[in-house]
Task: inverse folding
């Protein structure tokens, strides 16, 4: 039993909201953000007047000030942004917790809203370089995709970096491209199966077999079409409060047992020059996360891993000790991430098959698992581990 | 793989950036990396101060151009219309013998089956009139020259 004093040092997720996920929302990112926030507030039984903090992804186009005006928020006293794209997806929750525990705010909304299919498409080279003519362009990106040092070589999509990571992983652990593909195919196929029983998932009516996966076109060796996340229009929001107050606000608060962010030389933006290519974060990151939660890998019942690509799943499983180093390929090929496996993972279908709300829908799925309300409920789930490529991570817990 | 000289399209680096000396060096046939004159750390990509000792009087030195293949991926579907003409092409990470890792491309037959760890040496290939691209070839003869 956690003492009340401990709860004052901890945050809880007390509300979650999510719009429908589509290829063309037909409305603005600001409007989607408002809808998701209203849904999260309704879920928490709160009103807009209760919000006094906002934390957003730095990449989000919906600015705090615009939201404050649109929602008529009378008194926002804390706002912050977390950088590096989807790496923010656990970090926004960590920042919200820091605000409520320090007393800088009491009720903080985290949000992500994007028209990722009908608007800006992050997987396209045109997002990173300027086209001058039919025969020339200029690499001007500030991240390692399409930068002045990488664009001239044709490194124009995050997909290219994912391929460089996983081929290095294969080299270090003795797997060829075919062996990697069977494991990555198992990620894509199993997550699609989860999506088929998730009414919110964009791919709920689109079955996928390993044969389909293997027959799909290769974008960059060894990665095929289904190794990449969807492009999605939609928004997700969640509400964070202090854990002691959360007990009075909602019946089933989901506690943030640990929150960590990680930066080391060249680990962001989208690592390529970092020393370890086949790992997101050094062991100290996982150690700090588990120590903060007072738990170990064996205590984790469900994993929700940021999956812009299938390749992020094996790397994250190993980085957080959820399977031994070098054994993720076997773990996945044996379907240990499936509903009857040792560690159900990305149980909503993930960004690959539910939809890509830049990873914040990964956090809401973990919250549903710990509330016991997930579409693909892991029976008795008490602890969920979440990570966005090691750059931000959470352990969430069901209320005791 | 299309020979660089036969490419009809080019992606140039944005100039006016810290990477300018890298591309200016390439036009002179030099593969430049940064070095601290004080503690002799060498690194890439460039930075205004030494990541080891913090000094600001950092400079650029030519790399030997020798390195090993760290990772490589063959792109089979163009992510932009400008690279349709090149596709398939490869993107390689090369660990230079001085330590830094750089993004490049390997120029040989069937680069996709080249084992990681293969010893490479830089070559400078012009693309159009404005850009010289440092690329790598496997070191094949006893002199280590391509």
Result:
């Amino acid at each position: 039993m956690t003492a009340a004093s401990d709860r004052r040092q901890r945050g809880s997720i007390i509300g979650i909201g999510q719009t429908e996920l589509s290829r063309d929302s037909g409305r603005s990112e600001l409007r989607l953000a408002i809808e998701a926030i209203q849904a999260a507030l309704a879920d928490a039984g709160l009103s807009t007047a209760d919000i006094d903090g906002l934390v957003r992804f730095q990449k989000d186009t919906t600015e705090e000030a615009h939201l404050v005006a649109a929602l008529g928020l009378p008194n926002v006293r804390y706002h912050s942004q977390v950088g590096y794209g989807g790496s923010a997806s656990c970090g926004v929750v960590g920042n919200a917790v820091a605000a409520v525990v320090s007393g800088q705010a009491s009720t903080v909304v985290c949000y992500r809203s994007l028209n990722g299919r009908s608007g800006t498409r992050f997987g396209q080279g045109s997002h990173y370089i300027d086209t001058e003519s039919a025969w020339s362009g200029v690499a001007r990106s500030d991240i390692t995709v399409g930068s002045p040092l990488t664009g001239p070589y044709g490194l124009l999509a995050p997909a290219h970096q994912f391929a460089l990571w996983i081929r290095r992983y294969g080299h270090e652990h003795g797997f060829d491209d075919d062996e990697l593909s069977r494991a990555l195919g198992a990620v894509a196929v199993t997550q699609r199966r989860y999506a088929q029983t998730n009414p919110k998932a964009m791919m709920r009516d689109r079955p996928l077999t390993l044969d389909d996966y293997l027959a799909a076109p290769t974008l960059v060796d060894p990665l095929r079409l289904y190794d990449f996340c969807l492009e999605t229009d939609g928004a997700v929001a969640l509400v964070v409060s202090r854990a002691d107050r959360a007990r009075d606000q909602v019946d089933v608060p989901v506690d943030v047992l640990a929150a960590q962010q990680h930066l080391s030389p060249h680990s962001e933006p989208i690592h390529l020059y970092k020393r370890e290519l086949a790992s997101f974060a050094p062991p100290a990151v996982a150690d700090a996360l588990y120590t903060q939660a007072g738990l170990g890998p064996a205590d984790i019942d469900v994993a929700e891993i940021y999956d812009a690509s299938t390749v992020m799943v094996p790397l994250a499983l190993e980085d957080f000790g959820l399977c031994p180093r070098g054994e993720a390929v076997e773990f996945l090929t044996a379907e240990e991430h499936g509903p009857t496996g040792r560690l159900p993972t990305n149980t909503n279908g993930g960004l690959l098959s539910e939809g890509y709300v830049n990873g914040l829908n990964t956090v809401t799925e973990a919250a549903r698992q710990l509330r016991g309300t997930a579409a693909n409920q892991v029976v008795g789930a008490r602890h969920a581990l979440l990570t966005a490529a090691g750059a931000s991570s959470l352990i969430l817990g069901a209320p005791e | 793989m299309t020979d660089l000289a036969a490419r009809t399209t080019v992606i140039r680096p944005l100039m006016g950036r810290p990477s300018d000396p890298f591309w200016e060096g390439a036009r002179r046939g030099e593969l430049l990396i940064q070095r601290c004159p004080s503690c002799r750390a060498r690194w890439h990509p460039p930075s205004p101060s030494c990541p080891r000792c913090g000094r600001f009087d950092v400079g650029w030195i030519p790399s030997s151009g020798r390195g090993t293949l760290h990772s490589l991926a063959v792109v089979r579907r163009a992510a932009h219309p400008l690279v349709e003409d090149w596709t398939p092409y490869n993107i390689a990470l090369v660990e230079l013998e001085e330590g830094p890792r750089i993004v490049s491309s390997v120029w040989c037959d069937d680069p996709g089956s080249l084992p990681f760890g293969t010893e490479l040496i830089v070559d400078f290939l012009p693309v159009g009139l404005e850009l010289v691209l440092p690329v790598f070839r496997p070191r094949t003869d006893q002199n280590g020259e391509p």
Remarks:
- Chain A has a mean pLDDT of 96.
